[in-house]
Amino acid sequence: MASPALKIAIVGAGAIGGATAAFMQTAGWDPILVCKHAGTLAQVTDPGLEVSGLKGEHIVPLRAVLTVADLPGDLDIVFHATKANDCVAVARELRPRLHAESMVVSLQNGISEDALAAVLGRERVAGCVVGWGATNSGPARIEVTSAGEFVLGSIDHRADARLETIQPMLDAVQPTRISDNIMGELYSKLMINACINTLGAITGGPLGELLAERRIRSVFIALLQEALGVANAMGIRVAPSTGGKLDYYAFLSGNGWLQQFKRHLVIRIIGLKYRRIRSSSLQSLERGRPTEIDYLNGYICDRAVEHAVPAPVNQAVVAMIKQIETGKRPMSMANMDDPVFAGF
């Protein structure tokens, strides 16, 4: 049952943050949404945020503010739904508005929990996998595009009663489970995003076009193999992919022709099923915005250095995307002919 006594904020009025705010509001939780843009603020307060798609048509008026500085103090729960690139700056702004028992739930792509914990304290940060999709379809208009779940957990793998309070809030949006291995759940999503997002950004192409090519599938596999090696060095038990459909340990086991054939077949099927998907990093670059590469492949590379594990393919694609972000390299399928991919 919703508790009006709890002070809840959602920072970020994009597709995930906005949809989360709308469905929490209809369930009676009354969050405050930080909108960043004055036009969005005006729209979500009157007549309301428009949500369409898989969960029906809704117009939901919300309490909203323009900046984190406009939020009240002593917030109990904050859902942090900005782009990963903004997570640390927002965390610094949030810190004076929290109390000792506050909890900040990260809804970012990639893994930003460690960076948030460095600012807010590990006891205040919860990890959360967003296993469903939504997109902005206009100012203060959001379409829920795919069903799925939230996976919530303590980043130190400890039982925490606050998670039991947060779970029904997120249940109002999508089914939510609490995991005792949230870093393994987050890393699972990170691994697939580090392939799909990265390759889409480098080439500028949709997923189906990319994964139809064997050499690109081979790079995809190499990225996964390096990422799993880093996870092993970190002591992370990587969970199966969202929905439990892909066990990375079994998928990457063995180097015989049959195992290689099966890997290429599975990735080809993924490409066919999601052939029209254009990665979020690609869309960011098309809008002239930076990607979240530092919290995707960049996270893998940083941990590889810390644990002295080789990750040359991940390091190469991070460098390539940085060049694209700064205009030193165009997005193009020709990037796959770069000497760094010569062995594939």
Question: Could you describe the 3D structure shown?
Answer:
It is a single chain. The longest helix is centred in the middle third of the chain and has 22 residues, at 182-203. This protein has helices at residues 15-26, 38-48, 87-94, 113-120, 161-171, 182-203, 207-211, 214-234, 248-251, 257-273, 280-286, 297-306, 312-325; strands at residues 8-11, 32-34, 49-53, 58-60, 63-65, 75-80, 98-106, 125-130, 133-138, 141-146, 150-154, 176-178. It has 2 domains: 8-180, Rossmann fold (3-Layer(aba) Sandwich); 184-341, N-(1-d-carboxylethyl)-l-norvaline Dehydrogenase, domain 2. The strands form 2 sheets. The protein has an 8-stranded mixed beta sheet, sandwiched between helices. A 4-stranded mixed beta sheet has the order 4-3-10-9. It is of the alpha/beta class and 344 residues long. It is globular. 45% of the residues are buried. Helix 3 (87-94) runs parallel beside helix 4, helix 6 runs antiparallel to helix 8 and helix 8 (214-234) crosses helix 12.
Describe the protein's topology.
Layout: E1 8-11, H1 15-26, E2 32-34, H2 38-48, E3 49-53, E4 58-60, E5 63-65, E6 75-80, H3 87-94, E7 98-106, H4 113-120, E8 125-130, E9 133-138, E10 141-146, E11 150-154, H5 161-171, E12 176-178, H6 182-203, H7 207-211, H8 214-234, H9 248-251, H10 257-273, H11 280-286, H12 297-306, H13 312-325
Parallel strand pairs: 1-2, 1-6, 2-5, 3-10, 6-7, 7-8, 11-12
Antiparallel strand pairs: 3-4, 8-11, 9-10
Helix pairs in contact: 3-4, 6-8, 6-11, 6-13, 8-10, 8-12, 12-13
